[in-house]
Amino acid sequence: MKVSDYIVDFLIKKGVTDIFGYPGGMVTHFMDSLKKRETEIHSHVNYHEQGAAFAACGYAQAADKVGVAYATSGPGATNLITGICNAYFDSIPVLFLTGQVNTTEARGNYQIRQRGFQETDIVSMVKGVTKYSCRLWKAEDVEAEINQAWEIAQRGRKGPVLLDIPMDVFRAEMEPSGIVESPKESQDKKEFLEILEALEGAKRPCVLVGAGLKNEINQSALAQFVERSGIPVVTSMIAVDVPKDCRRLYYGFIGAYGSRTANFIVAKCDVLLTLGARLDVRQVGAKRENFAPNAKILRVDIDQGELNYAARTDETDICADAGKVLDYLNAHWQLPDNAFDKWIMVCRQIQDKLASRDSSRENDMVGSISRQIPSQGIITTDVGQNQVWVAQSFVFKGQRILFSGGHGAMGYSLPAAIGAHYATDQVVFCFNGDGGLQMNIQELQLVSSQKLPIKVLVFNNHSLGMIRHFQEMYFSENYTQTTEETGYGVPNLKRVAEAYGIPYYQYTGKENMTDCFRERTPALIELLLDDETYVFPKLEFGKPNQDQEPLLERQLYTYLMEL
User: Fold this and answer.
1) Rounded to whole angstroms, what are the CA distances from 53 to 42, 88, 199, 272, 450?
2) Averaged pLDDT score across all residues of the chain
3) Which of 48, 49, 202, 351 is most buried, with most CB under 10 Å away?
């Protein structure tokens, strides 16, 4: 059996239906093998390898299984790296397959930079941003290595793996031995008694949920626990869609651009249970000692490395699957439903006092658009102001939302939307800024040629809005390289849509878009904004999370802190 045929057969048996990549000389055997099985696995040509990597991320996030992307050697492989980083930092399981020059052309021990054309040591480059990566020098290594890589991608904290395959290995013959998969690791049954006792003994408990709970099973377990216990829940920004079935007790996301209400609740709680949240600087603030200062922090994470980076020196760390903790709490919770009613009244007072405090035209626009999006729709955002507006103001009715979180990669939204559509067959609503769209604008060709039902919404303020705001605050309004007058520009989006053969719409406010959204067809929707746009609230570096800008009147701030 030819190696490339074996790899395709392996992917099909694993349930992969769609794969993303870009043609190149060193992967032609793999492409040929994909063609032979095209009724069972669909290979999609992106128009940049970075687009293929992001599409594989979107596929994995939306399908909750392993995504796959491929590229040829040299620049093809290196163009995947941004997407590999994205998968690594956001714990997305993706198998990256890269072609490599023939083993007979490899540099080997020669003290030269390159021997074969487009030879590049991609494995060394991605060692720090993959869970596993290796070059396959022999056909007989392929079966064991691909099985191992597949398992590693999904074990513990998920993430990307990469196999670099020389062209002569792709075309070589092999004899599969039928390796049996290693049994999945089962977590030891731990007595999560300390968590249970702390929550049941608290007067003002709070649950902070991170992206570690972004799957259907964990979301269901969370909803069961929150509704049963009556404990308020807040999230990280990347997890705003997780508490979809417990919105009654959800108070927003925390952090630098988060909800004032959520930040105040965390500041005032006496026990904080964090589930699968990294507690990075943007979540807890630069002075970590200011985070949840009155609370006993019980921190659950599957990655011991994250726990080693303590939010506070007195926190209690539990290295475990957050879903297992929820299962335990659901099985052992004893308090009555109304145990925390007084605390919930305080949370609602805070929420009422801060209602619409930071609402902007852009926030209102997102809220209006979200109410017109069907509950089964998939949402992607890019990075920048558009991302924060969506996180702050999208009114969820069960939709899933995909972000580029830790890596914060502009250009993510459009190719991720492509992957998400192929994973779910749903209409995808793809939010972008005018800057981020241009990072991977070439992927409109795939949307157009395949008539994908992706609604590409572009917030156009003719500037790189988040950086422009930063320059306004800290550089005396010296808007270099961020506005149309200082070096940055935006094309005529109507003409762009026409060039790609995609229907174009333009809106300025709260117009009804349901007709456009209803059709399973592509659309490019330009949302016209003022040149000067802002994201509020915004935390000044070094301040406690709840003291965001624009600053609250000190009398109101004190009142809320003393409730």
Assistant:
1) 16, 12, 41, 36, 19
2) 95
3) 49
What pLDDT is attached to residue 352? 97
* pLDDT per position as a tens digit, 347-388: 999 999 999 889 899 999 999 999 999 999 999 999 999 999
Q: Would you identify the CATH topology of the domain 361-528?
A: Rossmann fold (3.40.50)
3-state secondary structure of 517: helix
CATH H superfamily, domain 193-354: TPP-binding domain (3.40.50.1220)
Question: Average pLDDT, stretch 478-498?
Answer: 96
- pLDDT tens per residue across span 48-67: 999 999 999 999 999 999 99
CB atoms within 10 A of CB 376: 12
Pairwise CA distance, residues 243 & 235, whole Å: 8
Secondary structure letter of residue 483 according to DSSP:
B
- Alpha-carbon span 252 to 262, nearest angstrom: 5
Q: How far apart are CA 286 and CA 35, in angstroms?
A: 52
How confident is the model at residue 337, as a pLDDT? 85
In this prediction, residue 350 carries a pLDDT of: 98
pTM here is: 0.96
**Phi/psi of residue 255, nearest 5 degrees:** 110, -170
Q: Answer whether 100's CB lies under 8 Å from 76's CB.
A: no
Q: Which residue do the tokens 């009142």 mark?
A: 559
pLDDT tens digits, one per residue of 263-286: 999 999 999 999 999 999 989 998
Closest CA to 20 of 75, 58, 61: 58
Closest CA to 427 of 374, 469, 501: 374
The sign of the torsion formed by the CA atoms of 138, 140, 144, 150 equals: positive
- The CA dihedral of 405, 410, 416, 417, to the nearest 10 degrees, is 110
Name the token pair of 152. 């590693």
Kindly state which CATH superfamily the domain 3-170 is placed in.
Answer: Thiamin diphosphate (ThDP)-binding fold, Pyr/PP domains (3.40.50.970)
Q: Measure the CA–CA gap between 394 and 388, rounded to whole angstroms.
A: 10
Task: Indicate the domain borders of the chain.
Answer: 3-170, 193-354, 361-528
Please count the residues of the chain.
563
Residue 180 has pLDDT above 80, yes or no: no
Distance separating alpha carbons of residues 273 and 140, to the nearest angstrom:
48
Query: If pLDDT is split at 50, 70 and 90, which confidence band does 515 have?
Result: confident
Rounded Cα–Cα distance for residues 297 and 387 (Å): 29
